[in-house]
From TrEMBL:
<dbReference type="InterPro" id="IPR014555">
    <property type="entry name" value="RecF-like"/>
</dbReference>
<protein>
    <submittedName>
        <fullName>ATPase</fullName>
    </submittedName>
</protein>
<dbReference type="InterPro" id="IPR003959">
    <property type="entry name" value="ATPase_AAA_core"/>
</dbReference>
<feature type="domain" description="ATPase AAA-type core">
    <location>
        <begin position="37"/>
        <end position="367"/>
    </location>
</feature>
<dbReference type="Pfam" id="PF13304">
    <property type="entry name" value="AAA_21"/>
</dbReference>
<dbReference type="InterPro" id="IPR027417">
    <property type="entry name" value="P-loop_NTPase"/>
</dbReference>
Length: 420
């Protein structure tokens, strides 16, 4: 499964210029691990960081103006960092599963026209040529103000020596194609990513479109949904019943084993069984300690239902390449958080497991992590957010090696940042 090696975000709310992991311009940094956790005080920019990831996905799916105008964003000018006249910029670096795969970098700049409508002003997808270790990666998509070019074909370019300059030349069966976007609110990768002869664009589009952000709402998950089957749990959890129906239909034996595994991890639950109602809806029947009669998901507490949803999410047979979760600790007992963090770590470490990015306020959750899995967001005197990897804070690696958990270091303010 592809992995996000790093992302740079500029001029997005308080994220005036933050970099997470390795990018085209921060090549000396380490690539992001499979589990990334961002901590920090209220208002430090954690929600903006997750929303920036969601914004990229919305731009791809709906266009940049529609993505900016979503109610919680309020339009381009409300999103752009106060005082900035520069575009909102993203630099994304990702890599396909093989360890020797060459990373691909994607640049996206969004500004507004004279009428205040958001539009794409720059877009570029690039990768180093085979054998190239230094110098600028070669572009196989580059658009400025909607015009530019893209390479078609499976490889698109190779080292060229015929000109004596080392310039790349087209491989047989590939060509450099002029591109002019009719609608500058649409990403070039959204259009070209539907064409099979632009293989790298297709691969990156599939990677970006697969990102999943969880904003679980217990009340929505508690209500039984209509009969039907959905292959994935949606962002708010309201299709929980349909997701279960899909898993049960696809693999009945595996579904029963899944319920047994989850039943052992949800506190107070003895057994979980699936029950099909007369209208063909699937509901879960829970047997709990101290109760002679079973109960259903409508009767579960917010915390228990949330724990159930996260465990079900981690049973998805075809997970998203990147999963973002905001404050999973809300509604959960503090003693469950280290267990939940460990579950996420194990899930992310699986061969087909996703990469997971989590924001949290909970030291108990952070206790289960390593210095390389924790980043600290802190708002400076200039009002902008600054991002620091915990392992880069002097003394943190040494104290962790001596047996002091990361959450305890944070709670005791040994980071020196990330607290009110």
């Amino acid at each position: 499964m592809a992995i996000l090696e790093g992302i740079q975000i500029q001029n997005y709310r308080a994220l005036q210029d933050v970099t997470l992991g390795k990018t085209l311009y921060e090549r000396e940094q380490d690539a992001l691990p499979r589990l990334v956790t961002v901590i920090g005080a209220n208002g430090s920019g954690k929600s903006s960081l997750l929303d920036a990831l969601g914004f990229l996905g919305d731009c791809l799916a709906e266009g940049v103006e529609a993505a900016c105008d979503k109610p919680h964003r309020g339009g381009f000018e409300r999103m752009r960092t106060q005082g900035s006249v520069e575009p909102i910029k993203f630099e994304v670096r990702y890599k396909e599963t093989p360890t020797n795969a060459r990373p691909i970098s994607y640049s996206l700049h969004i500004a507004c026209d004279a009428q205040g409508r958001a539009q794409v002003v720059y877009e570029r997808l690039r990768q180093r040529r085979k054998g190239q270790k230094y110098g600028q990666p070669y572009s196989f998509l580059e658009l400025t103000n909607g015009q530019g070019y893209a390479w078609s074909g499976t490889e698109g370019f190779e080292e060229g020596t015929g000109t004596g300059t080392g310039a790349p030349t087209a491989r047989e069966g590939s060509e450099r194609v002029p591109v002019k976007m009719k609608d500058r609110q649409v990403l070039g990768i959204a259009t070209l990513g539907t064409l099979a002869n632009h293989d790298r664009v297709v691969a990156f589009r599939d990677f970006l479109s697969g990102w999943y952000l969880s904003y679980f709402v217990p009340e929505l998950a508690r209500n039984p949904s209509q009969a039907g089957a959905d292959p994935h749990l949606d962002r708010r959890g309201e299709n929980l019943s349909r997701y279960l129906q899909y898993v049960e239909r696809a693999n009945p034996g595996g579904f029963r084993q899944m319920l047994e595994r989850i039943g052992k991890k949800v506190p107070g639950i003895i057994d979980i069984k699936a029950k099909t109602e007369r209208d063909r809806r699937l509901v879960l029947e829970f047997s709990a300690q101290g109760f002679p009669e079973p109960f259903y998901q409508q009767d579960m507490s917010d915390g228990t239902l949330k724990m159930l949803a996260y465990l079900l999410l981690m049973e998805d047979p075809s997970p998203a390449p990147l999963i973002g979760i905001e404050e999973p600790e809300n509604g959960l007992h503090h003693q469950l958080l280290a267990t939940l963090a460990q579950e996420f770590k194990e899930y992310a470490s699986k061969a087909r497991g996703p990469q997971i990015l989590i924001t949290t306020h909970a030291p108990n959750f952070v206790d289960a992590l390593t210095p390389d899995e924790v980043w600290i967001l802190d708002k400076g005197a200039d009002g902008f957010s600054h991002l620091t990897r915990a392992s880069d804070v002097p003394g943190v690696r040494e104290m962790f090696a001596e047996g002091i958990p990361m959450g305890s270091l944070w709670y005791s303010n040994h980071f020196g940042i990330g607290n009110p």
